[in-house]
Amino acid sequence: MKATIEARPLAGTVFYAPLYGSHVQAGFPSPADDYIEQRLDLNEHLIKHPAATFYARAAGDSMTDFGIFNGDLLIVDRALHPKHGDIVIAALDGELTCKILNTRHHQLCSGNQQHPPIPISSDSSLIIEGVVVASIRQHRC
User: Fold this and answer.
1) I need a surface site. Which of 91, 99, 100, 103 has the fewest CB within 10 A?
2) 130 — alpha (psi -120 to 50), left (phi > 0) or beta?
3) What is this structure's pTM?
4) Using one digit for the tens of pLDDT, what is the confidence trace for 124-133?
5) Residues 6+ away with beta carbon under 8 Å from 7
6) Which residues are CB-neighbours of 55 under 8 A, at least 6 positions away?
């Protein structure tokens, strides 16, 4: 079975939400700050090449060490040239996978020691569908 992903341009909607100027402490709380630095549109922030961008849902636990968990929404840019160490969506022998591209050892690596690297042999059919530029996890459904 040959896997294909079709990139479609994003809708032209824009949504600007307030972006607070101070960071939110993930450890001990700090005094509140009401200062809004600017407005932010996530499309502008996360998507540099709209016509070459697509979304994919992560499945499984092979990328958890890189903060990608089952069900996360991946933002994938086909316009970027994949390089060593990039997290990519690859079609290896027709099967889609999200892995780290290791060009030095010709393999696709996971971000979980339970999943060994996948060698890319000279007989393999490898197509890099795009580079994962961001992942989004919902904390409340």
Assistant:
1) 103
2) left
3) 0.82
4) 999 999 999 9
5) 51, 52, 53, 54, 78, 130
6) 73, 74, 75, 76
